[in-house]
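Job type: complex structure
Entries:
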Amino acid sequence: MKNKKFFSAEHKKYLRKTRLNRLLISLGRWSVLLFIIGLWELSAQLALIDPYITSSPSRVAKTIIAWAKDGSLWLHSWTTLYETLIAFAISIGLGSLLAILLYLFTPVRKIFEPYLVVLNSLPKIALGPLLIVWVGAGTKAIVLMGILICIIITTMSMLQSFVAIPQEKILLLKTLGANRFQVLFKLILPHAIPDFISVLKINVGMAWVGTIMGEYLVSQAGLGYLINYGGLVFNLDTVMSGIVVLCILASLMYFSVATLEHYIHKKRNL
Amino acid sequence: MNKLLEFKNVKLTYQTKKNETIALENLSFSVFEEEFVSIVGPSGCGKTTILSLIASLIKPTSGSVLLCGQPVKNKTSSMVGYMFQRDNLFDWRTVFKNVCLGLSIQHKLKSPYIEKSRSLLEKYGLKDFENYYPTQLSGGMRQRVALIRTLATDPKLLLLDEPFSAVDFQTRLLVQDDVSYIIKSERKTAILVTHDISEAVSLSDRVLILTKRPAKIKCIKSLDFNKSLTPFQRRSDPKFSKYFNEIWEELKSEE
Ligand SMILES: Nc1ncnc2c1ncn2[C@@H]1O[C@H](COP(=O)(O)OP(=O)(O)OP(=O)(O)O)[C@@H](O)[C@H]1O
Ligand SMILES: [Mg+2]
C-alpha cells in the first residue's frame, strides 16, 4: 500500500514534469516568433534597416488588411490554394495508383524503373516552357507543373514502401491461399499507410513549390504572381505579405495532414 | 494409422544466376495422421525447402509430394497450416482479426468457423485479449495467437519452421508445452523444423535426421516416451538424454 502511494506520487511528479516540459517548449516556440517579429519591427522603426527593402511587420499587416478590404486577398489566396489542392490530390491519387500497378506487374516495373529515376532527378521547372506551349499559359500549366513535381516522388516512395514489405508476411498469406489482390488489400496497402502519410506530408511542401513556380512562369493571379510582381516593381511590402500569407496557408494544409495522421494512428492503435 | 503425407524420391534444385543449388535429392519419407514429426539437420541442408514443398509454395523438380494420396497443389493449401519463425501478426489488426485472417481469405467468415476461432481463443487463454493489438502482447502470447491463426482454418497438417527460436528460453519452455497441448487436443498432425535437439526430443513422436545438402534421410528415430508426459516432463525422463545423445552423434557425423 505504502509502496503504491509512493509510486503514484512519483508518477504525479513525472506527469507534472512532462506537462511543464511541454509548456516550456511551446512557450519557447512562440517567443522565437515574437522575438523575430519584434526585432524586425524595432530595427525598421529605429531605421537600422531600410523598410523599403526589408518591409516590416506593421507594413505587412497594413498591406494584408488592405488586401482583405479590397478582396484581392481572397482572390489570390484562393487561386493558389485551389491550384495547389488540385495538383496535390491528382498527384497523390494518380501517383499511388501508378505505384500499385507497377507493383502488381513486376516486368512493367522493371521496364519503367530507370525512366522514373531519370524523371525524378530532372529539375521539373525545365519543362515549364514546354507545358506553356502544350496546354497554354494558364491555370492548366500551373497545375501540371505542380503535378509533375509531386507525382514522381509519390510513385517512387509508395513503390519503395510496397517492395520493402517482409517477404515472409506475403508467404504467410500465400500459405493461407491468398491471390495477389488479396495480398494487396490485406497486407500491402494497410502496411503502407504510415509511408503514405509521410508521402502526404512531403507533398504538401512539394505541391506549393510546384504551383508557386508555375505562377512565376505564367499567371494573372495567385500568391506566386503577387510575390513575383512585387519583386519586379520593387514593392517589398507586397513580396513579404505574399510570403506571410503563403506561410499561413501552407502550415494550415500541413496541420490538416498532421491531424489526419493523428486520427489514423489512434484508430490503428499505433 | 493412415499415411497423411508422403515424399517419393523428391528432388529440388534452385536456379540462380550464378549456379544451381541442389537442395533435396532422392528424398523419401512419410508422416502418419496425428503424428508429431521433427526434422533436424545441418544448417542450410534444405529443411525449409521441405516445408515450402508441402505448402506448395514451390514445385518439386522431380518426384512427388502426396497429401492424402493426392499431389499437393494450390487447392490443397487449405489442408496445410504454416507457422513461421516470426509470428507475422499484422499490427493493425486486433488479436481476433489476426486469428480470422485465413478465414477472410478463404471466404469462410461465417458461422461455424468464427465460433471455432472464438472457442480456440477462449480455450487457450486469450479470450480477454481478443480486442488487443499484437504490440500489447508478450512474445509467448503472440506465438500462441499465431498458432491459433494457423488452426482457425482447420488444416490437417501443421508446418512449424523453428517457431520457438525467437522467444527467450523460459517462454520457449512454456510455449512448447502450450503448443504441444493444443496440437494434441485438436488432433492435428505436425511437422516441426528445429535446430534445437532437446526441443525435437521433448515434442516429437519421431525425429527425421537429414544429411548435409542435398538433403536425404540420414536416419529416423522413433521416440518411445510415456504418452502422458508433457514436453517439459520429458526433459527429466532418463530416456531424454539417451535420445539426445543419439541424435547429437548422428548430426555431429554430418558436420
Ligand atoms: N529461393 C532460393 N533460391 C536459391 N537458393 C535457395 C533458395 N532458398 C534456399 N536456397 C538454398 O537451398 C539450400 C537449402 O535452403 P533451406 O532454406 O531449405 O535450408 P534450411 O535447412 O532451412 O536452412 P536453415 O537451417 O539455415 O534454416 C540452401 O543452400 C539455400 O542457400
Ligand atoms: Mg530454414
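Summary: Chain B has nine helices and ten strands. The pocket of adenosine-5'-triphosphate (ligand 1) is lined by residues B 14, 16, 21, 23, 43-49, 213 (CB under 6 Å).
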